[in-house]
Amino acid sequence: MKKPSGRKAFFLVFVVATGLLAVIKAVWPEWTQPFRFGSRETVHAEARADSVMQAAARADSLMFVRERPVRLIDGQGREVKHRVTSVSDFDTCFPDLNDVQLATASRLGCGVCADRAEAERRKADLVYIGLSPYYDVRPLSHSVPYLVPRAARLLDAIGRAFMDSCAVKGFPMHKMQVTSVLRTEHDVERLRRHNGNASDQSCHRYGTTFDISYNFFSRVQDPDDAPQPETWGVTLKSILSEVLEDFRQEGLCYVKFERKQSCFHITAR
């Protein structure tokens, strides 16, 4: 029997080896992954970190898209009004627990500040959010009104969308009320002294996270007019929940519905 030539033998070995590798990859795909030093937990943590940055890049591309104008009048000159639908269930629609939000906050946020003096020195990394046409900040006892830029942009966008939704749904103009923002380590320690549910691993430490009340809103009106009665609380909560569901489904933020604190706990992605 005639032996195959060198070229034919090489080709035969190449075909057999390629087929064998294809079978191995199909049956044991983990064997074909690049080797990495470290534990399996380390590899998984790196994968999660990569997914955080990929989500952040996508969120950035969406946040910088120009806003579409709100239609208050249709082509026939008639007022456009949209129904208030709320969400199907607050707990189901806003389920993002602290560990999920913390993984993103620690990657995208500023470094943890020991106290407020250090937070003051870190203003180059933070944006002041104490004054805005889109929301009000309630008096803060355990946080300071600063966020990292991406979280500040998100808060502005949510505030604008909420006011637009009030308009197109035919309700008086209101602002959201922000109840908690950046917390220093000292703020967290003070808060935990009288609130056993407060976590020492709070996402608020990274400047990516803020709380929006769902019980309190600020009526937008002429300051010289007499205060108007507030009778829209439940409806405004429903409108805000619709807005937050849209932002969450677009991958722009994580949202947790907090019953005890009566707020939506939000982390920018």
- The quaternary structure here is single chain
Q: Tell me, rounded to a whole number, the average pLDDT.
A: 85
Order of helices and strands: HHHHHEEEHEHEEHEE
How many angstroms does the end-to-end distance come to?
Answer: 68 Å
Largest sheet: 6 strands, mixed
Proportion in β-strands: 5-15%
Measured as a percent range, the helix fraction is 40-55%
Structural class by secondary-structure content: alpha+beta
**Unreliable parts:** none
Shape: extended
**Radius of gyration over C-alpha positions, nearest whole angstrom:** 26 Å
Protein traits:
two-stranded antiparallel ribbon; extended; 269 residues; 6-stranded mixed beta sheet; 8 strands
Description:
The protein is α+β, with helices and mostly antiparallel strands and 269 residues long. It is built from 8 helices and 8 strands; from the N terminus they run αααααβββαβαββαββ. A hairpin with a 4-residue loop joins strand 7 (253-258) and strand 8.
Please give a quick description of this structure:
This protein is α+β, with helices and mostly antiparallel strands and 269 residues long. It is 42% helix and 12% strand. It contains 8 helices and 8 strands.
Blueprint (SSEs and pairs):
Blueprint: H1 6-27, H2 40-63, H3 90-93, H4 98-108, H5 116-121, E1 127-128, E2 135-137, E3 146-147, H6 149-168, E4 174-180, H7 185-194, E5 209-213, E6 218-219, H8 233-249, E7 253-258, E8 263-268
Parallel strand pairs: 2-4
Antiparallel strand pairs: 1-3, 4-5, 4-6, 5-8, 7-8
Helix pairs in contact: 2-4, 6-8
